[in-house]
Amino acid sequence: MTDLSATRAIEGEAQFGDYFALLKPRVMTLVVFTALVGMLVAPVAVHPFVGFCAILFIAVGGGASGALNMWWDADIDAVMRRTSGRPIPSGRVTGGEALAIGLALSGFSVVMLGLATNWAAAALLAFTIFFYAVIYSMWLKRSTPQNIVIGGAAGAFPPMIGWLAATGSLSLEPVLMFALVFLWTPPHFWALALFMRSDYDDAGVPMLTVTHGRPATRRHILAYSIVLAVFAVWLAVTAAGGPVYAVTAVALNAWLLRGAVQIVRRDESAAEADRYLVEKKFFKFSLLYLFLHFGALLADAGLRGAGVL
């Protein structure tokens, strides 16, 4: 069996891991975590089994979005170094298979989330899948340098879905959690684009670095980081926040702004000389930034549940 599997892999036939890769598991991790935090910080207790089912179906919906995105973007994925090894451009999975998987999982996740929790949460999950697959992937990504700005909403909906699954309604707290992810997305991806610009040039994707240049992108990173810091700290004074989140938000956003200022002060000769070291550090920090904010929200919720706060 091992020899057969190896032979199939060499010949390019799909393995289970290739179909799983269609679901963008790294992105799904963020979706699951932020949705879980949105559910657990809500002021309504959720039965563990119902909560498990809700997060599972939200994860499946996120995976469905990833499959639909890979189906549509297969042509540009094949051009970009960062994505050329994905299942479709590598030939291990066909576009038709990815489309079928994406559509099937979309319908399954929405219906099951509605049955497990409520139809408001299911409706927002359906809109999230539509937003990512159609509005972002099919329209914004290839037509405007604001693709990441507007398209970032797709990744920002999960904490709202988690909150809705628990409560059936929305309030300021989930909106601010949405804003935290939404405003984080542009500087996170623009930092990546600063040192991966050639990929977007080759693929014809109108990323800000391509349409406006790196200096303008650096200024945009600083501007969005300032607005992001305001909303991140604002969340600390709501019912979802607490002392752990407050300290975490102040420290992380001070570091964020420091990094953004360093980026905007650099010229291209300095960046090329050290191979975009500062930009890469900012990008790596941004990966931790969101998880630490939501982790702090979860810690405060745990302290409240234990009666400490």
From TrEMBL:
PROSITE patterns: UBIA. Gene3D superfamilies: UbiA prenyltransferase (1.10.357.140). It comes from the Bacteria. GO terms for biological process: heme O biosynthetic process. Keywords: Cell membrane, Heme biosynthesis, Membrane, Transferase, Transmembrane, Transmembrane helix. Its main location: membrane. It catalyses: heme b + (2E,6E)-farnesyl diphosphate + H2O = Fe(II)-heme o + diphosphate. The keyword Glycoprotein does not apply. The chain crosses the membrane at residues 27-43, 49-72, 93-113, 119-136, 148-169, 175-195, 221-237, 243-261, 282-303. Pfam families: UbiA. Its EC number is 2.5.1.141. GO terms for cellular component: plasma membrane. GO terms for molecular function: protoheme IX farnesyltransferase activity. It is found in: Cell membrane. Belongs to the UbiA prenyltransferase family. Protoheme IX farnesyltransferase subfamily. Carbon 2 of the heme B porphyrin ring is defined according to the Fischer nomenclature. Interacts with CtaA. PANTHER family: 4-HYDROXYBENZOATE SOLANESYLTRANSFERASE (PTHR43448:SF7), PROTOHEME IX FARNESYLTRANSFERASE, MITOCHONDRIAL (PTHR43448). HAMAP family: CyoE_CtaB. This is Protoheme IX farnesyltransferase. It comes from Palleronia sediminis.
